[in-house]
Amino acid sequence: MQRRELLRLGMGATLFLGATSLLGCAQQTPASGYHALREDDLALLRALIPVVLAGTQAAPELVLHSLDHKLAALSPAMLKLSRQLFDVLSLPLTRGPLTGVWGSWASADATQVEAFLQRWRDSSLDLLRQGHASLLQLLLMAWYERPEAWAACGYPGPPRI
């Protein structure tokens, strides 16, 4: 690892950890009708779902409820990590510098969301690349576990026992 890479990693980790330490004041109660997802999480995910699942017939509300069900089944430690990722993406202090989305997620258009995803995917910081992979895996898992997604990909469903 070269000096410049080490400095970038250190600065990124410092920013990330500093932001997550401020997250104690973030809302921790689930949104109405959900077990794990909070209001800020919903705004973020509603902006991401149409971009990440473009080309599918994914209904955002179905995806959100599937994801909520999966998150609610996680261990407390894993749920905390997922919430920290959502918090870093939702807090105005970190959202703008880390994502390039300076306004709210509700007002972000598809071009801004795509640019954010590409920025994290191609980042020199491993932490951001891991965050990108985690977001995609969560959303893809939440959609493709649903029977509504199976027909489009040719999956007949699990065998009946």
Write up what this structure looks like.
By secondary structure, the chain is mainly alpha-helical. It has one domain (32-146). Helices cover 65% and strands 0% of the residues. The chain has eight helices and no strands. It has helices at 3-21, 39-52, 60-72, 76-90, 92-99, 110-121, 126-144, 147-150. The longest helix has 19 residues, at 3-21. It is globular, with a radius of gyration of 17 Å.
What layout of secondary structure does this protein have?
Elements: H1 3-21, H2 39-52, H3 60-72, H4 76-90, H5 92-99, H6 110-121, H7 126-144, H8 147-150
Protein name: Twin-arginine translocation pathway signal protein
Organism: Pseudomonas muyukensis
Question: In brief, what are we looking at here?
Answer:
The chain is an all-alpha fold and 161 residues long. The protein has helices at 3-21, 39-52, 60-72, 76-90, 92-99, 110-121, 126-144, 147-150. It is 65% helix and 0% strand.
